[in-house]
Amino acid sequence: MTETWGGDEESLPGKQNSFAAEDVVLVPVDSLLPADAPRLSGEGDAHVRLLAESEAILPPIVVHRSTMRVIDGMHRLYAAVLRGQKNVEVRFFEGDESDALRMQTMGDRAEALQQLRQDPSLRFNEAGRALLRWLDSQPVGPPDLERAIENVPAHCAEIMVRLARGNAEAWRELAEQLERR
């Protein structure tokens, strides 16, 4: 069911933690703020045009209710604007801004991993497949980290700290070297 959002708290679907009720709400596009970490350049622009030109019904955009900032769906929002839509379907996310940022980061990571998995230059050589396996093995968010922490025996904690710091340093070095390429 799609409701129309009137802009006041009383017109919103039930408030609960994480996502609001499964109902999708129709929201004016000009009431939404862009995501904190926009990724729209080059390939993203082409993706927006492809979405806008398609006749597909796009999934609802996920929006942080208290800030009206898009968490997931910037490509879909820009496609709706290109289509001339005044309103877009939204599912509201409940939670504080740090929860919203974590959710956005996990979504960005999943999208990036999916894009890398589809790249033949990584899939069709052993070094690329090893990198993909390494990326897949990394925790993606607080629930995964909590589960990992719970499964480390107390007597192994010091060793794990050294390994985790070493891995973090290796990731930092990898990022720096890739940025210099």
Number of helices: 7
Q: Give the second-level CATH assignment, the architecture of the largest domain.
A: Alpha-Beta Complex
Strand count, sense and barrel status of the largest sheet are: 6 strands, mixed
What percent of the residues sit in helical stretches (DSSP H or I)? 40-55%
Which percent range describes the beta-strand content?
A: 5-15%
What structural category do the secondary elements indicate?
alpha/beta
Taking all Cα atoms into account, the compactness measure Rg is 20 Å
How many structural units, i.e. domains?
A: 2
First and last CA, distance: 49 Å
CATH class of the largest domain: Alpha Beta
- The tally of beta strands, per DSSP, is 6
The residue ranges in which pLDDT falls below 50 over 5 or more consecutive positions are 3-21
- Described by the principal axes of the CA atoms, the overall outline is globular
- Kindly report the CATH topology of the largest domain: Conserved hypothetical protein from pyrococcus furiosus pfu- 392566-001, ParB domain
The fourth-level CATH homologous superfamily of the largest domain is Conserved hypothetical protein from pyrococcus furiosus pfu- 392566-001, ParB domain
Average residue-wise pLDDT = 77
In sequence order, what are the helices and strands, one letter per element?
Answer: EEEHEEHEHHHHH
Structural notes for this entry:
Strands 1, 2, 3, 4, 5 and 6 form a 6-stranded mixed β-sheet that branches. Mean pLDDT is 77; it is low at 3-21. By secondary structure, the protein is an alpha/beta fold. It folds into 2 domains: 2-102, Conserved hypothetical protein from pyrococcus furiosus pfu- 392566-001, ParB domain (Alpha-Beta Complex), CATH 3.90.1530.10; 151-181. The protein contains 7 helices and 6 strands; from the N terminus they run βββαββαβααααα. The longest helix has 24 residues, at 157-180. The N and C termini lie far apart (49 Å). Helix 1 (43-53) packs across helix 2 (74-82).
